[in-house]
Amino acid sequence: MSHRIIQPIGLHAFDMQAEILLWFAAGHDVLWIPIVEVGDGPDAIARAQAEADALGKPYLLRSLEEFARIPDGVRGWVFPAHLDDTYAVALRIGSEVTFGTLRHPVTGDAISFRTDTESAVGFAPPSLAAQPQSTV
User: Fold this and answer.
1) Distance of CA 130 to the CA centre of its chain
2) What is the CA radius of gyration of the chain?
3) Which helix (DSSP H) or strand (DSSP E) does residue 100 occupy?
4) Distance CA 60, CA 30 (A)
5) Which helix (H) or strand (E) holds 69?
6) Which residues, 6 or more positions from 16, have their beta carbon under 8 angstroms from its beta carbon?
7) Per-residue b/e over 72-107, b at no fewer than 16 CB within 10 Å?
8) What is the residue extent of each domain of the chain?
9) What does the pLDDT average to over 101-114?
10) Which among 16, 27, 64, 93 has most CB atoms closer than 10 A?
11) DSSP per-residue codes, 46-59
12) pLDDT at 101
């Protein structure tokens, strides 16, 4: 399965954006964790691992302005550090940040950070607690 589809948040845009703004207003640290796709082909897992290594660790964001630091053109999960799941995704293109959700390309079901999308290709990501956090 692929994370190729980002669903614009449409009618729920204000709700999701307001929720994200409230996380910062409440003083929560917010994580942005890059989403790496595993494509097709015999070297797909190796390519995905190389991309994950190049993107580095999750980003710890302490203000809305810090979304300017996330890599350009890379989707990532967004959620306050005290929670363990999210449906919110952020993508920065230039100076614009878009928030949305991911949907399974076949079923249309919403995909969360905790949705198992990788075991079918033989990869299981480490638990959130085991993932190192960026100090940047």
Assistant:
1) 17
2) 15
3) strand 96-103
4) 6
5) none
6) 9, 88, 99, 101
7) eebbbbbbbeeeeebbbbbbbeeeebebbbbbeeee
8) 6-130
9) 85
10) 16
11) HHHHHHHHHH-SPE
12) 86
Indicate the residue type of 84.
Answer: D
Neighbours of 31 (CB within 10 A): 23
C-alpha–C-alpha distance, residues 67 and 81, integer Å: 15
**Contact status, residue 61 vs residue 67, Cβ threshold 8 Å:** yes
Q: In 3-state terms, what secondary structure has residue 130?
A: helix
CA 44, 49, 55, 57 torsion-angle sign:
positive
Quote the percentage of the chain above a pLDDT of 90: 29
How many alpha carbons lie under 13 Å from residue 91 in its C-beta half-sphere? 18
Q: Which amino acid is at 19?
A: E
If phi > 0 it is left, if psi is from -120 to 50 it is alpha, else beta; for residue 87 that is alpha
